[in-house]
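This is your field. Please look over both lines of this record.
***
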Amino acid sequence: MTDIPHKNNFDLLRLWLAFSVCFAHLGEVSGVSAFLPLANYFYSGIAVDCFFVVSGFLIFRSFDRSSSTLSYLNKRVRRIYPAYLTVVLAAAILLPLLFSDSATDILFSKEWFRYLFSNLSFLNFLQPELSGIFHNNPLQVINAPLWTIKVEVMFYLSVPLIFLLFRNRKQWLVLGSLYIASIIYSFCFLAMHESSNLDIYLKLEKQLPGQLSFFLSGGALYFYYALFRKYWKVTVSSAAVLLIISSQYALVAQLFYPISLAIIVIFTALIFPYLGNWGRFGDMSYGVYIYHFPLIQIFTTLSLFKTQPWLGFLALLAAIISTAFLSYRYIERPFLKRSSHYRQAAETVDLP
């Protein structure tokens, strides 16, 4: 069991990553020219990769500290599903009622049930839209970021199997073999996309095997944290060099980008001194992440960015933060166990 200092710093890092995804999406989703330059500074793809790294580090830790697999799975369901269920149901019921001229034609239709079933079962790609909802917006997808929650859930389910493999084999061999398998999967589908130019291969590359390398890299740094801490100068320097080389050479990026990114991300979270008990405010990052996309769509539909885009931007931030806070306080927190990091953090008072 690895003792990780400054775990609260991860709360702040994940909140920043969630807002990075939000800002990266703002221009594309709203179509407002004033917001388009934000995509030059915030990259949703990199932020999601960082999320997977942090998840690997913390979820491996969670399983390692759980009394049983059932206890571990129980914690994961309690943390993920209440807010996820809320955002899907709210979209399915409230959006037709508030933003459609023919709500009766949408509610309880075949398409509506398909949307509900596919999204509640994490198969968002089967029905990401509803007819008549956001039809005048640049994009009609209701909540595009939810695809990553499906991948995250698959990560959660893979962890007990990975730990099972640890019993009979060395940890580094299991992690290394799975990492290479993930890289090969991703490489094959990217090559097929390049040769055929079919988007289906890019979508398949983004599924579990292709993203597992980031999750495993975070998990590996949890297991070998002592070595990472001892040789951090060499490790971080090497990772930085590999990331620079990766920007020029695709093969190097394919092989070393996940682990190099993981080293930089975990180093960033752990190198800073204790930045305060951010966990006492709850995990706002999850709410920011799953609610921001439909909120941007709603603001776009209501033309709230049209005349004063940056004033609308501030109103959007207030709406996202308020929604995330209320979701955590009244939907997510009641399902957390007393042993949860966030419940304990809320009861901890920082000493001056």
Notes: Residues 225 and 231 are 10 Å apart (CA to CA). The chain has one domain: 8-211+266-346.
